[in-house]
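BUG: 3D viewer hangs when loading the predicted structure for this chain

Environment: internal workstation, default settings.
Expected: structure renders.
Actual: progress bar stalls at 90%.

Input used:
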Amino acid sequence: MKLFYHDNEAGDSRLRHHSNKDCSPAHLRSLGVLFYNFPPLLSSSATQVEDLAETRSYGNRDEIIISPTIMGPAYEVNLLQFYREHMHEDEEIRYILAGAGYFDVRDEEDKWVRIQVERGDLLILPAGIYHRFTVDEGNVSISYSLLD
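Structure tokens produced before the viewer hung:
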């Protein structure tokens, strides 16, 4: 996991946008964001993800595939939609199965904290936190969204 403040520069959201100011895991936790790493190739990871889902009463999963190959001409439009700032009334749990990307979350000073996620990362965003998502320059992210 890599955490840093977004540079707020205009341009392609898929670029790193590192402000040269890192952010600590403790700051992320203070925002209510939880982070785990469960490498998909380890058999214990599936059990750990299932245990976490059961503990939080999440019994359903949606697979989310963000890829120009799969999405075709709709890829760029959908990417812009994912990157639009929004929040949910329920927490959001995302487990990255393949590819990589960035979740940006707003902190208490209204700054964007950028969370670089890769294969095996599981992120829990609390209800009510403003966030957005984009793939990185690899242009692919395959993940599960855990739902109740």
